[in-house]
């Protein structure tokens, strides 16, 4: 098994309890993402990882919340994709 060659680290601003899930746009130097799940018992974190995996076409195990477990501001690491690939995929989603 070969190690994944690259990883991307992103700053995100999460909006839990939203009516529609998806990428909202820029929020300062972060990317704002709306999540339908409430910010209770880690449900928003799970929903964030599930949404990112779906949008990027990767398995959830390749996504890790590095910081901000209990905050709306999070830093997320995505293994196997470059930052440019991740941003391209997330900013072209409609």
UniProtKB/TrEMBL annotation:
* Pfam families named among the record's database cross-references: DUF167
Give the CC-aspect GO terms.
Answer: cytoplasm
SMART domains linked to this entry:
DUF167
Superkingdom in the source lineage: Bacteria
Q: Which regions form coiled coils?
A: none
| InterPro entries per record | DUF167, YggU-like_sf
Family matches, as PANTHER family:
UPF0235 PROTEIN C15ORF40
Q: Which family does it belong to?
A: Belongs to the UPF0235 family.
Q: What is this protein called?
A: UPF0235 protein SAMN05421819_1721
């Amino acid at each position: 098994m070969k190690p994944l060659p690259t990883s991307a680290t992103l700053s995100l601003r999460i909006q839990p309890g939203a009516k529609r899930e998806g990428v909202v746009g820029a929020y300062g130097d972060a990317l704002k993402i709306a999540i339908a799940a409430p910010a209770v018992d880690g449900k928003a974190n799970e929903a964030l990882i599930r949404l990112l995996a779906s949008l990027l076409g990767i398995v959830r195990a390749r996504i890790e919340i590095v910081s901000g477990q209990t905050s709306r501001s999070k830093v997320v690491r995505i293994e196997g994709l470059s930052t440019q690939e991740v941003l391209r995929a997330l900013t072209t989603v409609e």
